[in-house]
Predict the 3D structure of the following.
Amino acid sequence: MAAAAFTTCRTSTTAPHSTKIRFILLQNRQGKTRLAKYYIPLEESEKHKVEYEVHRLVVNRDPKFTNFVEFRTHKVIYRRYAGLFFSLCVDITDNELAYLESIHLFVEILDHFFSNVCELDLVFNFHKVYLILDEFILAGELQETSKKAIIERMGELEKQE
């Protein structure tokens, strides 16, 4: 009697790990949101609730602590520059230091583009800030990490205006 050989095929049901930013917030010390970009769908009321919670989380945090903190089932990575808090919400397993570097790169690009950026630059030129952000991060994923490439691209876009 011949025995039939059975083989099982294993397929992974988990998708490859992708580093996805859930949202980016730029808030001042008083809690006013100067820039908010969400890469996940949220109701308007939920967005306001998230902004309030994130602000309370980062503004009251002791500067001696790290710049990342758990937030719901994710984590918020933030950095303070002058009176502004730059906050990113990412997956709990993502690399915090890579996102801290990303925040710093974004600030360097803003600083270069606006020649010593301040909060009023973000308020009155919000469309340009969103344009810079879209060159840097697209659909919640880091697209370009070269400061030179982003600045060159922004220069090209400026010429077209």
In short: The radius of gyration is 20 Å.
